[in-house]
Amino acid sequence: MATRVGSRYSAGLHPLHAIFLAGTIPLFLGALLSDIAYAQTYQIQWSNFASWLIAGGLLFGAITLVFAVVGIFRADQQKGRYAIYLLILLAAWLVGFVNVLVHAKDAWASMPMGLILSAIVTVLVCAATWIGFGHWRQGGRA
To answer: Inter-axis angle of helices 15-41 and 44-74, to 10 degrees?
Structure first.
């Protein structure tokens, strides 16, 4: 009689998915810190840094969204949690897109809305990363 033993570990994120997901945090966090620096010093270069960091975060976020959309069709047991992950990622990307449009204005005109949006995007990306990496635990249970 054959006994089937299940794996103790659930399948994790694809390595590229994990790299791009983890890469969004420093980009959006750097944009937030650049916005804070601009609000304190009024040096326009900080606003330029924030714009470029947000653009990089949007690029990484878009690639991560593609992996997440593919992953939701592959998720067999935890579709609900994966759907929440996907929705938070999508919300972060959309708020980040609005943020890059706000930052396209004159540097002074982008404040304080740019700073607020940068903070919201950073929190959303951190939450998405927490959920994205957090539900791959030992024993296959979330």
So the answer is: 160
* Tokens (6 digits) for 118: 């940068």
Q: Tokens representing 19?
A: 């790299």
Q: State the pTM of this model.
A: 0.85
pLDDT, tens digit (0-9, with 9 covering 90-100), for 57-104: 999 999 999 999 998 887 666 678 888 999 999 999 999 999 999 999
Residue-wise DSSP of 62-126: HHHHHHHHHHHHH-SS-HHHHHHHHHHHHHHHHHHHHHHHHHTS-TGGGTTHHHHHHHHHHHHHH
Q: Cα 20 vs. chain centroid, distance in angstroms?
A: 9
Rg from Cα positions in the chain: 18
